[in-house]
Write a structure and sequence with these properties.
It is built from 3 helices and no strands. It is mainly alpha-helical. Helix 1 crosses helix 3 (44-56) and helix 2 packs antiparallel against helix 3 (44-56). The radius of gyration is 17 Å and the shape is elongated.
């Protein structure tokens, strides 16, 4: 029989999405956030994380309207 691995023993990346967003500079973070709306990307959790990171940096999380 195959030996079952417990889920918490699976090795995966240690960086979270929040960690990655923190590595982006202000302009890149804002560009990714606004372009995701222009492209119609439907990932509400990711968009929320990006908005939260912008707010932590005291940056405006409003969309630029063209």
């Amino acid at each position: 029989t195959m030996k079952k691995l417990k889920y918490n023993r699976i090795g995966g990346p240690k960086n979270t999405t929040g960690d990655y967003l923190q590595t982006l500079n202000d302009e890149d973070l804002r560009d990714v956030y606004t372009s995701s709306f222009q492209l119609g990307i439907k990932m509400p959790d990711l968009l929320r994380k990006m908005r939260d990171e912008l707010q932590k940096r005291n940056m405006e999380a409003q969309l630029a309207l063209f």
